[in-house]
Amino acid sequence: MNSSLHKKERVLIGLFLFIPLLLLITFGFLPLLEIISYSFTSWNGISTQKPWVGWDNYVKILTAPKYFQVFINNLYYFGSGLLQILIALYLAIILSFKVKFKSFFKASIVFPTLISGVAISMMFRLFYTPDGPFDTLLTALGLEKMIHFWLGDPRYVNYTLAGISLWRHTGLRFLMFYAAIQTIPKEYYQLAEIEGATFIQKVRYIILPNIHTILKINFILLTVGAVTAFEIPMIITNGSNGTTTFLLQTLKTAFEQKQLGLAASMAVVMIIALVLITSLQKKLFRSDNHDF
Amino acid sequence: MNKIKLLLASISLLSLAACQSKPKVEEGKIGGTLTVVTSRPDADELFEDIEAGFKEKYPEVEDIIWESSSDYDADIMKRMNTKDYGDVLFVPFSMAGTPSEYENYFYPLGKVEDLEKKYLDVTEAVYNDNVYGLPVSINILGFVYNEDVLKAAGIESMPTSTDGLLTTCEQIESKTGATCFYTNYNTSLGVWAGALSSYGENYKEAALNGNPFDEGQPIREVMDLFYQLAAGGYIEEDPITGDYNQSLQLLADGKVAMIMRASQDLATIQALNDSEDNIKLAPFPTTLNGTTSIPVGAPGVIGINKNTDNLATAQAFLEYFISSESGYAADLDGVPVVIEELNDDQRALFEDGTIVKTASTEDAAIQERYSAVAGEVGIARLTDVLQKVINIGLYPEQNQSYDDYVKELQTAWDQALKNYE
Amino acid sequence: MSYVTFNHVFKTYSQSNKTVIKDFNLSISKGEFIVIVGPSGSGKSTLLELICGFEKITSGNIQIEGQCINETLPKDRDVAMVFQSYALLPHLNTYENIEFGMKLRKLPKKQREEKVKWAARILQLEDYLNALPKNLSGGQRQRIAIARAMVREPKLFLMDEPLSNLDAKLRESTGNEITQLHRRLKATTIYVTHDQTEALTMADRMVILNEGIIQQIGTPFEIYTQPSNLFVATFIGKPQINIFNVVYSHQQITLFNYITLNVGDRFSSLEPNEEYLLAIRAEHIKVDNDCGIAMVIQKIEYLGSEVILYLNVEGMTVTMKSYQKLDYKTGASIRVFFDLNHAHVFNKTTHERIELNNEQN
């Protein structure tokens, strides 16, 4: 009686797990294996033939500077991501205390993440038009000397794009921090009140330690985001004017230049880089392994 | 288990019953039902009008069944594995790479030398001199310009060379203050691939035997054009924030002198500025063998299913469809396919210039090799190259020099050629 | 002189318009251990929040050492709180948790060290100074919370149901520790709980609270033996006191319309032929095989030293506590009598206790 129950249990568990596993394998592992296999070919994406080229693609990317140079542009997005964390954290903390119009602020911070990419590209191209909204704003603030071609001028375009990325993604981080802060039991705040903690002390002793998991996650997301940055340069400048990032270049290599094999090897290099960086981060954070 | 078998059996029977067989029409007679398959799921109203017109002309016709699909090429290719893909249908563009297949699926409409007397652009779907599909409408690529701006600058006619264009721009900018050429950096640069054939026939073959970035080669010519326009300040001041719709309005208002566009856009632009008749189309500023070129393209090609059992009706319908009687081309603001039906402006264009195709006509092996090499060098899409050239022109200090860039491309091409012997 | 005074304190929440504390008056002497006890929702926690300053007092005032603290910030009120959930900072070890408040106030390191060691010694935490809370038991965490409050040496200690998260055995021993600590430090303490046993064992004086209104203030003895109203009588005492509907007439009271008991002079302050509520504790019901009231034994609970009998009479359950080792059987008949010298009478409508003659206890 017992063993047949166990068997039925196992069958049931298997059935339930079957679909998620199938999805994971089909959309997670299989494509990964395929990409790795493509990276050893010079396939162009459509032909029925996939000529084997061994390590050629990898040699090409690692030796020809033009492929790696674009990584410098990713740094702008790393910087943007750092700022995003700081700003989102600050906003989440501020809005956790008594503030008027809390809902309005929360909505306007999160709203940019909900807009479609197409809408953003249109919006910002319009926003940065010469003598357009942004320039008018600067003039109104008396800063007209600082006006440049924000997207046209190669000296400024990457900063502008990093700024747009900041506007777009801070909301997500804010949501995470805010939710984490909400879970802090109110007794800690009461304790802080009674013991006379200042605002900074509250942040340092009550808030930050209790959201350390979310903080760590955000730093991992930061590096992942910096390495895989591509949406903003793609929709606003098409990667032109010196704004291409590594992933954008990979996509163009795959679908515009029709060099899927080479692009696959770029993708694999990126995956390896990501795995290395996140493992390193996890090791660093392991010393802080509290499970409260 | 038995119940399931019964269910499956009954479902199959029912679905079979749903298939109707069409009544056959006598050979040579026009009548009966016709199935037409198109790539236009959005054109229901238009098709209703066409159907009404056709039935009026041929009252024996009982009905026309319209089928369409938005992912047309993929869907129709699947259907073509059977015999059931309509009587009249749009020819899928993807077949252009394998022209030998046409005769397996489509009914020959006539010989090239015969049909080209009556129609424009009869070589969209050709094999062994047989025409298997005709264009539903003709689009001509070129420079759309505002005549009034030219007149105000004292210019009689549109330039026919890059140097001529620069001179024209200079006069326009100094005498009228209008922006000479609006590049539409974000939306239109890729379309210049269709202009290449105006700068040189068989340019892909030439590229494979030489270097497309050498002086005089089509791609190099276009690059030079953009570089000089940008460096001379004859384009919009911040191309990256440019807006397509705005460019049309600026052209209509006379603030921009010319943009690169196609014949089907003339009506839209003219409508933005209702009074006059000042928006015209000119060929690309270059000559080939002494004449300007008219790069034509067809937004759709229509043919007849080889297996149709209503041939006469199908033929009559095709003829009707591509004539201006149907109104299809007019609906697309296209140039009529039937030569007789051209208006004076259009006829003049064709008489002065040579017709070239925007799509490449070179043979398959060359196309493939060219694609591979171009991909390697990074010029498979002209957009990236032209955007870079424009930026070099506008910001010479922050970019490598134009000459260096050209040299870089030349070297890359030579290298890539070796990889694809 | 009163050390901590509550004068007509009211608290109404503006959003819901609910008045949760109504006319709270209390004088606490220095060094007293006051227990505020009441059921859930009686307002105990709100009271603590008012004392700490987390909520504003709607009307009335609270004074500590003669100074009104209504408008004082929590950190300046010189009160320390031991939270029900301990609220230990999870990333700090025991030492750091205890010194937390002092560190915030930037006391010099030497001083902090002295005090932490002092508190740790008293509460036997010396062996755990480097441990993190997650590695310690509930009882140990509780003591750390107490230590943290102790080192403040505040004017007033507040404890919010500190034992409710502990298991029974630990509750007893920790409760003892708190009492001993109190004797040693002589710190003025307000202790809040819903458990009447804790209240009875630990308090110098108790405050019974129900729905925001004080029911009675007194020593445990007073509360137990002279409950001022029906609520206090039924809330305090385990098992719960027995309540009967009775009618008085001519030195007799009648239960269930037919059982008559002679009561002598004691009940003469009652109105004849009026209905009253008679309350009698389980330990004041005794076996009387001769002329007791007949009841049927429903359930027997052996507690070792004593037996609790659940008796049934006229559909009502009566609890009786017996120390006699008799052979009780479920379903058997038993005759009992009430020791009316220890009974209380309550007004049927106001539930107030009525003074009887010759109050004996």
Instruction: State the total count of DSSP E strands of chain C.
Output: 21
> What is the strand content of chain C?
25-35%
Shape call of chain B: globular
CATH architecture classification name of the largest domain in chain C: 3-Layer(aba) Sandwich
CATH superfamily of the largest domain in chain C: P-loop containing nucleotide triphosphate hydrolases
Radius of gyration of chain B: 25 Å
Q: What is the level 1 CATH name of the largest domain in chain B? A: Alpha Beta
* Tally of alpha and pi helices of chain B: 18
Characteristic terms for this protein:
heterotrimer; B: 421 residues; alpha/beta; D-Maltodextrin-Binding Protein, domain 2; 15% strand; globular; C: 361 residues; alpha+beta; Rossmann fold; OB fold (Dihydrolipoamide Acetyltransferase, E2P); 2 domains; 6-stranded antiparallel β-sheet; 9 helices
Overview of the structural elements:
The complex is a heterotrimer of chains A (292), B (421) and C (361). Chain A has 14 helices and no strands. By secondary structure, chain A is an all-alpha fold. Chain A has a domain at 71-244: Orthogonal Bundle (MetI-like fold). The radius of gyration of chain A is 24 Å and the shape is flat. By secondary structure, chain B is α/β, with parallel strands linked by helices. Chain B folds into 2 domains: 23-135 and 298-352, Periplasmic binding protein-like II (D-Maltodextrin-Binding Protein, domain 2, 3-Layer(aba) Sandwich), CATH 3.40.190.10; 142-292, 3-Layer(aba) Sandwich (D-Maltodextrin-Binding Protein, domain 2). In chain B, 43% of the residues lie in helices and 15% in strands. Chain B has 18 helices and 13 strands. In chain B, α9 (203-209) packs across α16 (364-377) and α10 packs parallel to α17. The longest helix of chain B is centred in the last third of the chain and has 18 residues, at 402-419. Chain C has 2 domains: 4-230, P-loop containing nucleotide triphosphate hydrolases (Rossmann fold), CATH 3.40.50; 242-354, OB fold (Dihydrolipoamide Acetyltransferase, E2P) (Beta Barrel), CATH 2.40.50.140. Chain C has 9 helices and 21 strands. In chain C, β9 and β10 form a beta hairpin. At the A-C interface, α9 and α10 of A face β6 and α3 of C.
